[in-house]
Amino acid sequence: MDYQTIESLVGNTPLVRLQRIPGHTNNTLLVKLEGNNPGGSVKDRAALSMIKQAEARGEIKPGDSLIEATSGNTGIALAMVAAIRGYKMKLIMSESMSEERRASMKAYGAEIISVSAKEGIEGARDLAMTMQAAGEGKVLNQFANTDNPLSHFESTGPEIWRDTQGQVTHFVSAMGTTGTIMGNSRYLKQQNPNVQIVGVQPATDKDSIPGIRRWHSDYLPEIYAPSRVDMLLDVTQLESEIMMRRLATEEGIFCGVSSGGGVVAALKLSEQVENATIVSIICDRGDRYISTGVFPS
Q1: Full pLDDT tens readout for the chain, 297 residues
Q2: Which of 41, 71, 258, 280 is catalytic?
Q3: 258 assigned to active site
C-alpha cells in the first residue's frame, strides 16, 4: 500500500464561504484555510518548495545547515521541512515573537537566534547574510527566492481556480514576503487577466501586525513586482485583531492577526463591488497567538 507522507499533505487546503460576517451582499466572500497545512500555515508551501528546489539544483544536501530570518510562520514551516528531509535549521527572529512560535520551532529541532525587537526582521535578515558569509550555512532567503512565489503559482493559485470553478474575481492577500500574492497573481491572471489582485498592508508604521509589513524601500522583497498588484488596501492593527476575534466567534475560524487583516480588506473591497467572488487567505491558526493576549483570557 502506498501511504502518504507528511510533506504530501502540504497544500489542497479547504476554501470555505464566510456565512455571517459579510452581512447582506450579493458578493461571495471565500477564505482559504492555510492553517490546515501540517505545519499550520501558508508558509509550508514556500518552505517545501525552497528546500526541494535547492536540492534539485544541487545547492544543498541532507545534513547541511540552513539559515533563515523569519517573523514566525516561515520559521516553523522550514523547521518542519528540515526535520522531514534531514537538515540542520538555524532561525533568526525578533525577541518580540510569541512563545508558541519559538516552542514550535524548537520542537522540530531548530536552533533559535534572537535579535532585538528594535532590529526586527530587517536586523534578522542582515545577520543571516553575515552568518552565511562566515560559512555557517546557506540562507534560503524567502524575500529574494523565486521558489517562494513558485510554490503558489504551482499549488495555491490552481487550487483557488479549481475550487471556484474559474469564478474568482478578486484575490486578497496580506503582504509579508509577498510570495503568496506574487505567485497567485501570476497564475490567476494567466487564467483570466481581469482577476483583481489586492494587497493588504498596515495603515501606519505603528500598526504591528505579525505577517503583514509596510516595507522600507531598502528592504523591499526582491521577489515583489508592483505591476502584479492592482490595488493596495490599508488595515489597522486594532481592526485586524477585532476581525480575528470575530472570525472565531462568528464563523468558527480560529486564526491569526494577519488573517483578520485580510478579511477586513476583503470586506472593504466588498463595499466597492457587486456580484464578485472574493478570495482571502487565512494564513495560519490562532493557537500560536494565545500568549500575546490578543484573545480574551
Answers
A1: 889 999 999 999 999 999 999 999 999 999 999 999 999 999 999 999 999 999 999 999 999 999 999 878 999 999 999 999 999 999 999 887 778 888 999 999 999 999 998 888 789 989 999 999 999 999 999 989 999 999 999 999 999 999 999 999 999 999 989 999 999 999 999 999 999 999 999 999 888 888 888 887 777 899 999 999 999 999 999 999 999 999 999 999 999 999 999 999 999 999 999 999 999 999 999 998 888 888 887
A2: 258
A3: yes
- CA-closest candidate to residue 51, choices 70, 67, 31, 38: 67
Q: What single DSSP character describes residue 199?
A: E
43-139 CATH fold = Rossmann fold (3.40.50)
88 is catalytic: no
Locus of grid cell 479547504:
14
Backbone angles phi, psi at 113, to 5 degrees: -120, 125
Of the listed 41, 43, 155, 270, which one is catalytic? 43
Binding site, residues? 73, 176-180, 258
- The structure's pTM equals 0.93
Q: Which residue carries 525577541 as its cell?
A: 95
CATH code of the domain occupying 6-38+146-282: 3.40.50.1100
Q: Binding site for pyridoxal 5'-phosphate, residues?
A: 73, 176-180, 258
